[in-house]
């Protein structure tokens, strides 16, 4: 991933992030506090925010990464943008609420970042590679099967989760800040 800011780069280098499909506790409580309490200037390292409406998703995606999904969802659900709705779906999926995850993904349709997401995800998943594009429903279904005992794709699903996060975070960052 490209360099964002020292704060964000430090957060994203944390190896404990996104290791569980359905976390029940914070991955790193200290990191969660840092994300929660960071100023806009700390997050951006002084880069200009060009989309005030979308910028809160930078914090929401970082909270998602540290498994603070309730906080991430609360921020995302206040933003009327398909990217925010997609993040809500990601939170529902990780919370094991597959019905609402699908509902969010249905409302979104597609995002411009899906082509890149599909390309990256196809490198680690033969099932994803068989699709014409990124299919969040396939990913939800695979996570649902894993929850109910089909663990043969667990490692792949963790990798897909990380790719989805990285791709969405980069998209949100680029749409929110001046280059």
Structure description:
With 179 residues, this protein is mainly α. The chain has one domain (6-176). Helices cover 62% and strands 0% of the residues. The chain has helices at residues 6-12, 29-37, 40-44, 56-65, 69-76, 82-94, 98-108, 114-122, 126-129, 136-147, 154-176. 34% of the residues are buried. The model has no long low-confidence stretch (mean pLDDT 95).
List keywords for this structure.
179 residues, mainly alpha, globular
The rounded distance between the terminal residues' Cα atoms is 15 Å
Provide the helix percentage. 55-70%
Overall structural domain count? 1
Structural class by secondary-structure content = mainly alpha
Rg calc: 15 Å
The total beta strand count reads: 0
Strand content: under 5%
Instruction: Outline the biggest β-sheet.
Output: none
Total helical elements:
11
Order of helices and strands: HHHHHHHHHHH
- As residue ranges, the low-confidence spans are none
Q: What overall geometry do the principal axes of the alpha carbons give?
A: globular
* Mean residue pLDDT: 95
Secondary structure: elements and pairs:
Elements: H1 6-12, H2 29-37, H3 40-44, H4 56-65, H5 69-76, H6 82-94, H7 98-108, H8 114-122, H9 126-129, H10 136-147, H11 154-176
Helix pairs in contact: 4-5, 4-6, 4-11, 5-6, 6-7, 7-10, 8-11
